[in-house]
Specification:
about 0% strand, globular, mainly alpha, 8 helices
Length: about 150
């Protein structure tokens, strides 16, 4: 390991960076798909995010852990407001949803945070072994998604 990385922190940083790059790439494919409407892009991004977490729980937990906040700050450009940044890609979708009347015109950044809280919460519940979530993952996602969609219209 130390042939490639000078320390454990550098290894963690590389894993965090690679994880975010892979997640961003998967979500960007959905974002750029002109065949899907805005609602289905948001839906597919949520499902893909959860599936990403489930496919590699250790990597996902490392990417979002409190213990590595310093490394995350060094690894992720939170000032990048371009569509290369997943968060701002989602914000852009929420802005489009507002323009089309799908959502009420409110702060799209806050709406995106609500969306991320929803999908991160579901991913965490699944990874923590809550049996109801595991058995009903698809139904629970669909219910939560519809509640969020209704809430953003009101």
């Amino acid at each position: 390991i130390y042939r490639h990385f000078s320390s454990k922190e550098h290894l963690f940083k590389a894993v965090i960076l690679k994880g975010f790059e892979q997640l961003d790439a998967e979500l960007r494919i959905i974002f750029l798909d002109d065949q899907k409407n805005i609602k289905y892009k948001i839906y597919d991004i949520g499902k893909t995010y959860i599936d990403f977490a489930i496919a590699s729980p250790a990597r996902y937990r490392l990417m979002l852990s409190n213990q590595l906040t310093k490394l995350k700050k060094e690894s992720c450009d939170f000032q990048n407001t371009s569509l290369e940044n997943t968060f701002f890609m989602i914000v852009s979708l929420f802005e489009m949803a507002q323009k089309t009347g799908l959502f009420l015109p409110k702060t799209p950044q806050k709406q995106a945070i609500v969306f991320f809280a929803m999908i991160h919460g579901q991913a965490s519940l699944f990874l923590d072994g809550h049996s109801m979530i595991r058995e009903e993952k698809e139904k629970i996602f669909e219910m939560t998604f519809e509640v969020m969609m209704r809430g953003l219209k009101e």
